C-alpha cells in the first residue's frame, strides 16, 4: 500500500490549504490590495466610502399629510351635515305649536314645515296639537271635535306621534 504525498500541515497559520498555487506578485503580499490588480486590468476602486460626503438628512416636513387633511375635511362635513339636519328639523311639524302656520315641505311630500303666518307660503294654521298614535279615521274623528278645524295632519313613527288639527290660513 502506498501513502499519499505529504502536503504539509493544513492548519498551519499563513497557509491556505485550498490554494492552487502561489498568486502572482511577491510572496506574502495580497495581489488584490489597493492600486494593484491583475496584469492588464485596472486597479480596484478604493474601498470604504464615496468620493463625496453623504447628503445631509432631510428636515422634517411641516406640510400636513394628505391623510390628516382628508380626516379634517370629512370631520367638518359630518359636523356640517349634523348641524344642517338639526336646523332643518326645527321647522318640522313636530315643532309646531297652537297658532303656528304650516306649509307642505314639497309638492311630492306629505311632510309639513312651520312657516311665518304672514308669509304667502302659509297654507294652514294649527288649532290643536294632540300627542298619541292616530289612524286616519281616529284623527278625523278627533279633529271634528275642534271648532273651525277643516283638516288634520298626523305623524307617526320617527319617535314622534301626534295629531295637528288645522284650519285654512
Structural account:
This protein has 169 residues and is of the alpha+beta class. 20% of the residues lie in helices and 17% in strands. The protein has a five-stranded antiparallel beta sheet, with helices on one face. It is elongated and about 135 Å long.
Say what oligomer this is.
Answer: single chain
Give unreliable regions as ranges.
none
Distinct helical segment count? 2
What is the average per-residue confidence, as pLDDT, rounded to a whole number?
A: 75
Radius of gyration: 48 Å
In spatial order, strands of the major sheet run 2-1-3-5-4
What coarse outline follows from CA principal-axis ratios? elongated
Distance between the termini: 132 Å
Biggest sheet features = 5 strands, antiparallel
Number of strands: 5
Elements, N to C (H/E):
HEEEHEE
**Structural class computed from helices and strand pairing:** alpha+beta
Helix content range: 10-25%
The fraction of residues assigned to DSSP E strands is 15-25%
Amino acid at each position: 500500500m502506498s501513502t499519499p504525498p505529504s502536503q504539509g500541515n493544513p492548519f498551519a497559520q499563513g497557509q491556505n490549504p485550498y490554494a492552487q498555487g502561489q498568486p502572482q506578485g511577491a510572496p506574502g503580499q495580497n495581489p488584490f490590495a489597493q492600486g494593484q490588480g491583475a496584469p492588464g486590468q485596472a486597479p480596484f476602486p478604493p474601498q470604504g466610502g464615496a468620493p463625496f460626503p453623504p447628503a445631509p438628512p432631510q428636515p422634517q416636513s411641516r406640510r400636513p399629510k394628505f391623510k390628516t387633511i382628508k380626516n379634517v375635511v370629512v370631520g367638518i362635513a359630518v359636523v356640517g351635515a349634523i348641524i344642517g339636519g338639526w336646523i332643518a328639523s326645527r321647522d318640522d311639524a313636530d315643532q309646531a305649536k297652537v297658532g303656528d302656520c304650516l306649509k307642505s315641505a314639497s309638492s311630492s311630500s306629505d311632510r309639513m314645515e312651520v312657516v311665518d303666518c304672514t308669509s304667502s307660503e302659509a297654507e294652514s294654521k294649527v288649532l290643536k296639537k294632540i300627542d298619541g298614535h292616530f289612524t286616519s279615521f281616529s284623527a278625523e274623528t278627533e279633529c271634528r271635535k275642534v271648532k273651525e278645524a277643516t283638516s288634520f295632519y298626523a305623524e307617526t313613527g320617527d319617535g314622534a306621534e301626534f295629531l295637528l288639527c288645522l284650519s285654512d290660513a
